[in-house]
Amino acid sequence: MTTDPRLYLDQELSSAARLPLGREESHYLINVMRRSAGDTVRLFNGRDGEWRAEIADANKKHAMLDLAEQTRQQAGVPDLDLLFAPVKRAKTDLIVEKATELGVKRIRPVTTTRTQSERINEDRFRSIAREAAEQTERLDLPEIVPLAKLDRVLDSWDETRTLIYCDEAGDDGARPWGGDDGRAAAMRDMLGGPGPAAILIGPEGGFSPQERDRLRQLDFVRPVSLGPRILRAETAAIAALTLWQSACGDWS
Questions:
Q1: Given the DSSP bridges, would you call strands 143-144 and 106-111 parallel, antiparallel or unpaired?
Q2: Residue 81 burial (CB count, 10 A)
Q3: Are 140 and 176 in contact (CB under 8 A)?
Q4: Domain ranges of the chain
Q5: Which of 12, 49, 197, 245 could form a disulfide with 74 if both were Cys (CB 3.0 to 4.6 A apart)?
Q6: Domain 6-72 has CATH 2.40.30.170
Q7: What is the mean pLDDT for each group of 10 consecutive residues in the chain (252 residues)?
Q8: What CATH architecture does domain 80-248 belong to?
Q9: How far apart are CA 213 and CA 246, in angstroms?
């Protein structure tokens, strides 16, 4: 595999085109990666596949690229959304990064009764997703959907998309995490075939009884368990995405 740097550019990519790089991309390529005129770089924009380009002109603040050839055709990812309740900043950043690496099409933060943070930085999410896509050979970026309340998201849900609800609680309100009765079946046993899907991960304190009751009453929701241990939100997201991709996604 080539070791050429890989950059996402929101510009049209076509044969023999000459593209100027912005200051941030020029700094990364010339100062961080220490490339110079004559070196090659790989480019993608989420639409036109991947292209090999040559650095035609370079200084510390400016670089110009000449496109040479397309090296990969455009390919998408499975139609999978990740819904999650934002947690502390570092953990939320990790969720966005790993969701991108694991091939999520849309990242949809939601607020719940026990959500720790009700503010997100969409630009920061996009920056994290761009870097993850550049490093993992992905040919597109996930869509970052604005933060919304879970109730409103459920009210307008497209019922052709299965919502896989990671529910670690039992039904006994007098016992920690609801005890053992009423636990959902293992996720690996509840997955269907390919098709539009979404995974819902709750906050570190779990879903409220009212949220859990509503989710379990909806026909498009499929409650699942991720095992006998209560996972942290970021661990649950990674585990659920891994299970789905291995069974229903593009890992095969």
A1: parallel
A2: 21
A3: no
A4: 6-72, 80-248
A5: 49
A6: no
A7: 86 91 88 90 96 88 91 95 95 97 98 89 97 96 98 97 88 63 84 89 91 95 92 96 95 81
A8: 3-Layer(aba) Sandwich (3.40)
A9: 29
